[in-house]
Amino acid sequence: MLKTIRWAAYALIFAVAVGWAALWLRPDFYNLAANGVRQSTSGIGVPGSVSVGGPFTLVDTTGTTVTEQSFRGKWMLVYFGYTFCPDVCPTELQTIATALDALGPSADKVAPIFITVDPERDTVPALAEYVKLFDTRLVGLTGSEAQITAATRAYRVYYAKANAKDSSSYLMDHSSFIYLMGPDGTFRALFRQGIAPEELAAALRTRIAGS
Questions:
Q1: Cα 39–Cα 41–Cα 42 angle in degrees, nearest 5
Q2: Nearest partner of 156 among 59, 70, 75, 46, judged by Cα
Q3: Bigger pLDDT: 40 or 137?
Q4: Which long-range contacts (CB under 8 A, 24 or more apart) does 126-129 make?
Q5: Are 180 and 189 in contact (CB under 8 A)?
Q6: Are the beta carbons of 130 and 97 closer than 8 angstroms?
Q7: How confident is the model over 5-19, as pLDDT tens digits?
Q8: What is the topology classification, in CATH, of domain 2-209?
Q9: Pair 139, 116: CB distance under 8 Å
Q10: Euclidean distance between CA atoms 106 and 104, whole angstroms
Q11: Which residues, in sequence order, are bridge partners of residue 60?
Q12: Cα–Cα dist 40/37, whole Å
């Protein structure tokens, strides 16, 4: 099962690399940069042939079952991680929270979503405590292993335990992107790990204004 997810994630990473290469090799690349048109303005380019996103059925921090349809009409900003993550996840979630603050009232049009890749430890109560550390608007989602697998497969997310399965203390290896889905549920943009909050806010502001 994880092998399938791994290859799907590799396909997305490869597509991202192709997008970067295409931008880098453009004759007007430096002109674009000089004019302030950067990758972060619209997200990383992903070929149209690569499908990203799709149906999911998960549980939020109130214990309510939700699906992708629950967020229709809003821009979904989706990040996959886990509560025991020591570095990357807290940084990316704080970036999302800061970007939302920068948007002001327009943030009401965005649904920031954190989906765990560690359902074994990230129960509903644990996730509820975690997400409120970053922003009260952040929606934490968990579920069964099968439900998480389905969601990660749809978004081409790679994840796996980083050490022996019999250990009660472990880390999770996982890919780290922020996904932007449109109000209609279609994939719109992919943002790299480490994007600055102001860049993410600018990208969201542009998308929202154009909708």
A1: 80
A2: 46
A3: 137
A4: 126/83, 127/61, 127/83, 128/61, 128/62
A5: yes
A6: no
A7: 444 444 444 444 444
A8: Glutaredoxin (3.40.30)
A9: no
A10: 5
A11: 141
A12: 8
Tokens of 49: 């042939």
Torsion sign across C-alpha atoms 11, 13, 19, 22: negative
Q: Are 61 and 127 in contact (CB under 8 A)?
A: yes
pLDDT tens readout for residues 55-75: 999 999 999 999 999 999 999
Convert the chain into a string of H (helix), E (strand) and C (coil).
CHHHHHHHHHHHHHHHHHHHHHHHCCCCHHHHHHCCCCHHHHCECCCCCCCCCCCCEEEECCCCEEEHHHHCCCEEEEEEECCCCCCHHHHHHHHHHHHHHHHHHHHHHEEEEEEECCCCCCCHHHHHHHHCCCCCCCEEEECCHHHHHHHHHHHCCCEEECCCCCCCCCCEEECCCEEEECCCCCEEEEECCCCCHHHHHHHHHHHHHCC
Environment class of 54 (CB within 10 Å of its CB; exposed 0-12, middle 13-18, buried 19+):
middle
Report d(CA 22, CA 97) in Å as an integer. 31
Asked if residue 96 has pLDDT above 70, the reply is yes
| Residues linked to residue 116 through DSSP beta bridges, in sequence order | 81
Q: Which of 70, 68, 101 is nearest to 179 (CA)?
A: 68
